[in-house]
Amino acid sequence: MLHTVNKSPFERNSLESCLRLAKKGSAILLLEDGVYAAINGTSVSDKVSGATKDNSVYVLGPDMKARGLGESQLIDGIKIVDYAGFVDLAADNDGVTPWL
Amino acid sequence: MTEYNFETEGVKKTITYLNRKAPYGTIYALEVLESVLISAAFEQHANIVFVDDGVFQIKKDQDTADLDMKCFLPTYGIIEMEKEDADEDEDMDMNWRIIVEKESMEARGLTTDDFKIEVEVLSSAELADVLDTSDAVIGG
């Protein structure tokens, strides 16, 4: 299962609920305002960093770039994907759960 | 050219409807509710799940008269009836579950007595399994 989070963790609980309800071993993709969860030094960094131990965590590169965020700010263990990578994730995983 | 097959006869999927928003403030709850009714028309298996503020959707005693908006609480009653019909009718291959996440319910000071319809209360871990084994998840 691929879980997608497209809301900022500082505005909504979408990320928190995703991390609570995603089974171990699931893939999680942060996109749109969800990318703010992928950077170091925030109030949610530790939680997201913890999630990279049990899940594959990805972030959509174009959404990071648009918001002025670079690879150097990324939490260790999160992988950047482009749109083609997003399609691969959707195709390779058995279904998508969107956290809006 | 890719050939698409739109034949739905005999196709049976388990679709999970993940309700996470309170009613009336946004359109999410109503949109998901309409999708659930469509899956009934196609006799698909469905998990109707209430998580986070979504648990407020089935709070009893809703009255929107003063808002000039449609109150859709009675529509959840129809969903409950559809589920009961499907459970009782042996010829009907349609399995529905109406699920509330325990953590979300308790965080909002609610118990099952506060709900308009009968629900199955699951822990986060149990609900994670339900999501993971669904053929499709519709968020809202």
How would you explain this protein's 3D organization?
The complex is a heterodimer of chains A (100) and B (140). By secondary structure, chain A is α/β, with parallel strands linked by helices. Chain A has a single domain, classed as DsrEFH-like (Hypothetical Protein Ychn, Chain: A). Helices cover 34% and strands 20% of the residues of chain A. Chain A is built from four helices and five strands; from the N terminus they run βαβαβαβαβ. Chain A has helices spanning 14-21, 45-54, 61-66, 83-92; strands at residues 2-5, 27-30, 56-60, 79-81, 96-99. Chain A has a five-stranded parallel β-sheet. In chain A, helix 2 links the parallel strand 2 and strand 3 (56-60). The longest helix of chain A is centred in the middle third of the chain and has 10 residues, at 45-54. Chain A is globular. Chain B has helices at residues 28-41, 73-88, 102-107, 124-132; strands spanning 14-19, 45-50, 96-101, 120-122, 136-139. Chain B has a single domain, classed as Hypothetical Protein Ychn, Chain: A, CATH 3.40.1260.10. Chain B has a five-stranded parallel β-sheet. With 140 residues, chain B is an alpha/beta fold. In chain B, helix 1 (28-41) runs parallel beside helix 2. The mean pLDDT of chain B is 94. The N and C termini of chain B lie far apart (34 Å). Chain B is built from four helices and five strands. In chain B, helix 2 links the parallel strand 2 (45-50) and strand 3. Chain A binds chain B through residues 1, 13-14, 17, 20-23, 26, 95-100, and chain B through 16, 18, 20-21, 28, 51-52, 101, 103, 124, 127-129, 131-132, 134-137, 139-140.
